[in-house]
Design a protein that fits this description.
This protein is mainly alpha-helical and 699 residues long. 66% of the residues lie in helices and 5% in strands. The protein contains 26 helices and 8 strands. It has a two-stranded antiparallel ribbon. Strand 3 and strand 4 (476-478) form a beta hairpin. The radius of gyration is 26 Å and the shape is globular.
């Protein structure tokens, strides 16, 4: 199994090297991603063996020099927890990489400077983080992932907005890395070792609490927890093509892995830390879906939904942290199980959404929802994928999202099992936020499915027309009548589409794998308590409730068939008879022009209902045409124009004032620039001594 592990990392290195070779032909541009898909498959299989309990290890001490006496040899290894994350993340990376290769070989210019290198580095760093045995290797992988995100988000740095997004991504990456560095240094100073396993022996106290807080803060920055979420809506849309799926659906899981591993090594955390995570997780979910519901661009809708899902996952982790603080292993199990199910559903849906969005955006040449109306009909593969991914994140039955949100809500309903009043209140508040989030998620994704996938195009032709030449989704520019997606890309989308549906059908089997993967954190027997019977589930606590997603897959289609047969039997041909009546002048299908719903108009009630969250700004002004010419709005008569916008509260109230303050500090620090190398070396020495002194004093 170690051979598969090494082969996967070697294939990532080959993919990065292949990206450095100038490629004039399409197949050469897709080669790095095809090689990366093979590497991801090797590592996913190796992770499966690790979940099964087999040894998966790669020692690299000989490559980096002789090990330091008294310190563990540097290397990589996968236990059950690492193996579960490898199966999930790298398993999703396989079809995304195939779609990436299909996207890269499309005809025409490709603005992908250092894109293949960033792709390979991102996957390689993800593996290193999930399998590191020591703090040095872990931090090395974390910094590598920050560099990879910078390359992916800044692949088209000629675009000013994307260059700015890349800088924001790397800035938050450095903030998370700094928090992890200090936290790991504190634990290493206390344990006198850099081995991660030794941190479990650190006694409780102020130092350990500080270290745990710093570690969880570093992981929260990468996960996009409020107030660190602002990098996601900028960083993800800035990346080209399926690189967004790699960032949002694959690599972001390192943040959750870090939290799970911290819980395994950190022991009993303080109760206030669990309460803070619960409240911030609920706020993150609600704020993320509120912004997703009113965005005008598809890429930003999906990016903000990532913020929402991060909040949901961290809320489940907060339940587990509450159980750890109170010493209740069943509460730990129910929280981690709900969070892991939500994380798997998010991985499946987010990779599907971003990969499918590439095809639909390419079909229209833009990602504005007003332009994308009905484009799902012209790119059916991508349209079906976008619909299934949206239904999954909306939490509807027969998808993995329904199961995960059901378990999450049930985990939050266990507050009566906690004695502390503060913990009960935080669980109740987080539960209310998650319930509101679930409701607005339905509104958000109805807009996507109803207008982008099922709605008629702007021309009102119901999707039957097509331009003379159109851009293919993952396959390039294609003539009329030809498929818009190359067969490998279509296969990848089909596989990703099947995942959220198949996971719901086999949820009991999925829980068995999760129980094995979580065994380093909580005994597998407790997690297996979620199986009331082989195909019926309960939230670990016996008798609370039951659910069988597998039987839903049999019962709901059977009920649909029964109702259809009864309707046909009772109505005969009248059921399928077409009646033509004048269209009702409203927002229904068949009404065109100013009387029909637009994506902006559909989201406007949400802007008003959530005005206190979004700080909605609206204005109505009278537009009077100048002279006899036509007005700016295209009308020759006076009329009213309505405009509405929302405010990113965290950015406006926190980061902009902080940026001004930081600019003033930088301006003052410029006085230290003397141009002398010996002065700069002295500054670095002073900073290093200060850090060592602080860490030593705290230890």
């Amino acid at each position: 199994m170690s051979g598969l592990f090494a082969a996967g990392l070697i294939l990532f290195a080959v993919a990065a090297a292949a990206g450095l070779i100038p490629a004039s032909s399409g197949w050469a541009r897709g080669l790095p991603y095809a090689v990366g898909a093979a590497g991801a498959a090797c590592l996913a299989v190796a992770g499966g063996f690790a979940v099964d309990g087999q040894t998966v290890r790669l020692d690299v001490a000989g490559w980096l020099g002789d090990p330091v006496p008294g310190q563990p040899a540097l290397g990589l290894s996968a236990d059950r927890l690492s193996g579960m994350f490898l199966v999930m993340a790298l398993g999703a990376a396989v079809p995304v990489s195939v779609a990436f290769a299909s996207w890269a070989v499309r005809p025409g210019p490709v603005a992908t400077r250092m894109l293949a290198e960033g792709y390979a580095l991102a996957l390689g760093a993800t593996v290193v983080i999930m399998t590191a045995r020591d703090a040095f290797t872990f931090l090395f992988g974390w910094e590598g992932l920050t560099a990879a995100f910078f390359l992916l988000a800044g692949a088209s740095r000629k675009d000013k907005d994307r260059a700015g997004a890349a800088r924001i991504v790397v800035a938050f990456g450095k903030v998370s890395g700094a928090a992890l560095l200090v936290g790991l240094l504190l634990l290493a100073a206390k344990s006198h070792s850099i081995a991660l396993a030794s941190f479990a022996q650190v006694p409780g106290g102020a130092v350990k609490t500080t270290a745990l807080t710093l570690l969880l803060t570093g992981f929260a920055v990468k996960a996009g927890l409020v107030p660190f979420q602002v990098w996601m809506p900028r960083g993800y849309p800035a990346a080209p093509g399926p690189a967004r799926a790699i960032m949002a659906g694959v690599c972001v899981n390192v943040a959750f892995y870090g939290m799970w591993r911290t819980l395994a090594l950190g022991g009993r955390p303080p109760g206030w830390l669990a309460g803070v995570l619960l409240l911030l997780g609920g706020c993150t979910a609600l704020l993320g879906i509120a912004h997703a519901a009113v965005q005008s661009r598809l890429s930003r809708v999906i990016a903000y939904s990532s913020v929402e899902n991060s909040g949901l996952i961290i809320t489940g982790f907060g339940v587990a942290l509450t159980g750890a603080a109170t010493g209740d292993k069943q509460l730990i199990a129910v929280g981690l199980l709900a969070a892991t199910l939500q994380m798997i559903a998010h991985t499946a849906a987010k990779t599907l959404l971003f990969t499918s969005a590439v095809g639909i955006e390419a079909e229209a040449g833009d990602d504005d929802l007003e332009v994308l109306r009905g484009m799902g009909r012209r790119a059916p593969w991508s349209g079906v994928g976008l619909a299934v991914g949206s239904l999954t994140l909306a939490g509807l039955p027969l998808t993995a999202g329904f199961v995960s949100e059901w378990f999450l809500l049930e985990s939050l309903m266990q507050q009566f099992r906690v004695t502390a009043l503060g913990s009960r209140l935080t669980l109740a508040l987080a539960g209310a936020a998650v319930a509101l989030t679930a409701g607005f998620a339905g509104v958000t994704f109805v807009r996507i499915v109803g207008m982008v996938v099922l709605g008629p195009p702007q021309g009102g032709n119901g999707g039957t027309g097509s331009p003379p030449m159109r851009r293919g989704g993952l396959g390039g520019i294609v003539p009329p009548g030809a498929t818009a997606i190359a067969p490998p890309g279509a296969t990848a989308i089909a596989l990703l589409t099947a995942c959220p549906l198949a996971l719901a059908a086999v949820t009991p089997l999925e829980i068995r794998v999760i129980a094995a993967g979580l065994s380093p954190v909580v005994p597998g027997g407790i997690t297996m308590g979620a199986l009331k019977s082989p195909w019926v589930l309960q939230p670990v606590f016996a008798g609370f409730s039951i659910l069988s997603p597998s039987w839903l897959w049999i019962e709901m289609p059977a009920m649909l068939l029964l109702v259809t047969l009864l309707a046909l039997g009772l109505s005969g041909r009248r059921l399928v008879r077409v009646r033509r009546v004048p269209a009702w002048r409203s927002a229904t299908i068949g009404v065109e022009g100013a009387d029909s719903y637009t994506p902006f108009g559909y989201a406007n009630p949400t802007r008003r209902v959530l005005a206190s969250v979004l700080h909605t700004r609206a204005e109505v002004e009278e537009v009077t045409p100048a002279g006899t010419g036509r007005s700016e709005g295209g009308d020759s008569v006076p009329h009213l124009r309505y405009a509405s916008d929302v405010v990113e509260v965290v950015e406006s109230w926190l980061y902009r004032p902080a940026t001004r303050l930081f600019g003033a500090v930088v301006a003052a620090a410029k006085r230290l620039q003397s141009g002398r190398l010996d002065a700069y070396l002295l500054y670095m020495l002073i900073a290093l001594v200060a850090v060592i002194a602080v860490v030593t004093a705290m230890a």
